[in-house]
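User: Structure tokens for both sequences below?

Assistant:
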Amino acid sequence: MSAAVKSYAAVDLGASSGRVMVGRVGPDSLELTEAHRFVNRPVRVPEGLRWDVLGLYAGVLDGLRTAGQVDSVGIDSWAVDYGLLDADGALLGNPVHYRDSRTEGVAEKVWATVPTRELYAATGLQYAPFNTLYQLTAAHASAQLSHAERLLLIPDLLTYWLTGEQGTELTNASTTQLIDPRTRDWSYDVASRLSIDLDLFAPLRQPGDPAGLLREAVLEETGLTGPVPVTAVGSHDTASAVAAVPADGERFAYICTGTWSLAGLELDAPVLTEESRAANFTNELGLDGTVRYLRNIMGLWLLQECVRAWGDPDLGALLLDAAKAPALRSVVDAGDAAFLAPGRMPERIAEACRASGQPVPVSPAEITRCILDSLALAHRRAVQDAQRLAGHPVDVVHVVGGGTRNALLCQLTADACGLPVVAGPAEAAALGNVLVQARAHDLVGDLADGRRLLTRTQPLTRYEPRGDAARWSEAEARLARG
């Protein structure tokens, strides 16, 4: 192997699993292998739904031990959730899960102080009941928050445990609804009006900034030889995934698929219009001054919950049966917050179809087809709306993330959007994580250079649109009437 090739550990934490991937990067090579995968299983305790963050940290250490000697480590994860530390730097309880019920009814209290139009104009973030701003408002009178000296978002918390250094990475901070996307700094006015103490947050970091060195105790536990730097990456997994979209030029839309579908555009500036707010688009920050203008869609969570309810049948066989089921027979709104909580997903989908006067899917194949048709329809709406609201036309849709392995969903998305879909890479978040680390070590140039490297080195599949576009328009109209 060439001496110019370096190895990077990408810790990539999703809502249901975590993994440590090793990326080997050279001037014209990029290889990714899985060192360790571990379960991310939330725990319901008397006070609510919590993350097992200690189990996650143990998984990270196990993964670094398996990965072997690396030139740097980077961590990305889901957004919005955080841990609180006391004055000694000790964790005050397990972090609350974003699907916990504590934020129910909180948004209305926030809006009474900062109306929705003002909040959107200041922060550019779509309404989601679990945004950090609402979580902090819900926790306002709690003993934990009153004793907290520091708040660290999940990737920053794990980085702190690895290095002993504290920071708040910007792309993830932008999901808190406390960042101004124009200044790329805190929205001090919003925080002040809602009595949120921004001093709880560690100083902001940019992707590529140094985040410390692995502590001696971590080196001993993992068997690594120091010094091993930790590099701040796009620590919101969507920011890393969008960095790994193998696009050429600017006329593209992206859909990051997994538990969620994040569908939208990469822009140079936020879109803060009232029309954008009403369409529930968000402006999150990306690499190199970019804005991730996107809509959150419930994603493959719907299918994951159904599969769990059905006793984990073979997914490949289920998708084959779903492909044979009647197309667009019934659809649901894949962005509906009614599907946010876990449990009874097949029944809830059936109930939604019944309530809208559509045929009720009964078999697993029919329900699966309903879910995938509904996701494709939601992808279509998001891509069309984003182009219109931003005045930014596109010629192709890039699908990255775990959903790229679902050929039926990719084809249905091409059909629904009426645009070619380029699917891949599947491990986009980990690859984006690796690319930022490689940039920090001068192995890769700018964002476009990294994307060219991905195009040359990663397997991609192209899906051409087919079928009658009018059928998708009719399904959308049916859903609107429902």
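Moving on to the next sequence.
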Amino acid sequence: MITWLDKNFSSLQPTRAIIMRALRHLRPADRKKLFSEDIPEMRTAEGRWFEAIVYEMILDLSLQTDLVLSVVARGADGPAKVRRAQLGQNGLFYSNIGDVKVRGNGQDLAEVDLVLVDHTGALTFGEIITSPADLKEFEAEIRYKKQLFGYLYGQPTVPFLLISSVDISRTAVVRRLLKEPDNILLTTPTCEDLKALIRQRDLKRSPTRRVKHEKLVSIKDIPPRRPFDYKKLHDERLQSIISTVTSKKGVGELGTPDEIPPIVKKVLFGGLYPSAVRMLDARYPIRIKGKTYDPDTIQKQFSKVILAVNIPDYRPIIYLRTRNKKEYLKMVPNKTGGFKFESRRTPHMAGFFLWLESVQPSLGAELTRELLDAFPAVHVLESVAERKP
């Protein structure tokens, strides 16, 4: 299927009819922003519009071959009502704007722009981009999604489509991805060229919201062949890390392959008891916007301190629950020895926020120290901190 798409995609040029049809996937407010003078707003709306254009092109192309069995509905073709994220929720779901998401214990593990099923029943996913500037974490993200879908659908290989409105074929990331035979790059005219096919007054028309298409299916029509309990897998990984660390096997053992599926990408170890907070702050100071917080200030301003780690790089993270707002401050290692503020986690990140809210204190000072000392990122910080006068 991907070989056929690679050969035939360029034969279908995005016509005015196609790009007008794509407007049905945008909310009225986003359609207005397509010609906005606010560049960030315009680029965001343009990105969503381009995703819809590619989707409409794939719908048309799918009718030309039996190699494409199904196209998974997205955007306006998604369900009118969606299930809100909640703890214990695992599988594939739609967001409120029709995006396809994989959730584990309510947390969004991955989002994909396009999903196709080929004539053998194998699943292929696609990512649609409009700029080469967003490729920094892109390669690791694609490899994780391949692992995730491969596990869920029992596929040894998961084909991947990268569709871009700019030529990114010479970037190092894309060159590495294209070395794999099950990945292909498809390129369209630029967004500027596509936008030249319409006028601003065209956006005032009310596009048809839904279309009937013989190859459209819901993501619910292709449930995972391997149902999973993400919280159970998470807890298995958590216990595996703790066992490795406390048995003094060494940092190198943390990444040793085992029988736990490699789809858990973040482990929440638990909340810190006051003794652990004091130890943490003494060894790795907490700094927020240039200000260093002592243990008493941390206890006063934050109701919960949670230790987590990203996998596979084992980069530690601290989440601080503010007392006066429904938010967590995400703290990451800095170069001077300690943790710095990076971003906020709010109820907008529904599933993950609920998971953070459910975490209770469980870590004492000794185990917290052992865990932090085992993570490579912290060893780097320690050596920097020791060199400080």
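User: Anything stand out in the second?

Assistant: Residues 378-389 have pLDDT under 50 and may be disordered.
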